[in-house]
Amino acid sequence: MALYITTSRKPSVLTRRLVHWLVALLGAKSENRGKRSIAEIVERADALGISRVLLIGEDHGNPRKFAFLEGNEWRPSLILSGIIAPEDKPRLFKQVGGVATDATGSKILELLGVEPDANASLIASASSSSLSFSLDGRPVGPLVKILRLAGD
Question: Does this model's pTM top 0.90?
Answer without folding.
Answer: yes
